[in-house]
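1st attempt posting a full record on here, be nice pls
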Amino acid sequence: MAATLTSRDELPAAGRLRLTEIFYSLQGEGLTAGVPTIFVRLTGCPLRCRYCDTAYAFTGGEWHGYDEILARVGEWPARHVCVTGGEPLAQPNCLGLLTALCDAGYSVSLETSGALDIAEVDERVSRVVDIKTPGSGEAKRNLWENVALLTPRDQVKFVVCDRRDFDWALERVDMHGLAERCPVLFSPSWGQVEPGELADWILEARSRVRLQLQLHKVLWGDVPGR
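the predicted structure (as tokens):
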């Protein structure tokens, strides 16, 4: 397996991050779906989910400082910024970037796998925690201690690959009282579960979870950087 930014033996200087891309698009997921957003995609991820659609961000990228990243973000008119990956928190300096973006007046969200500790993330950031289902192949990596840290400004996402995943996810929602802590989103794994099928399951279960579609894939398909 190619090397990734998953260990502490490649720590950069303070304020520097390995960056895969920055791009401007519509937010495709979550409570701000459809909102023009600037995406900052960091390089590296310690997970290998079977359905991953951003494997190109596992390796490569280029080093950039906070000031350079903020300057590039400022080239677009949007006030929403999504820091994503890969797994952004695999780079310790991600925390400083999140704070810098908040200080600059942006509305900031963080897309994280939930396998890493979210305790030190700036409280102004909306943390979108992707809890891994069995179908991902990475369910053992879930850090359940994160649940106690969730607030109403955060979101929890489950990517559902089949009916087993759906039932497993519902059990965890109930077990951990997730719907009482923050919005809970169920998303069909692209090409594995039909959106209408997942919608029927949610309705039949009379659950408080919400159906989420990947708007960017509906609009543009599997096109990187959209």
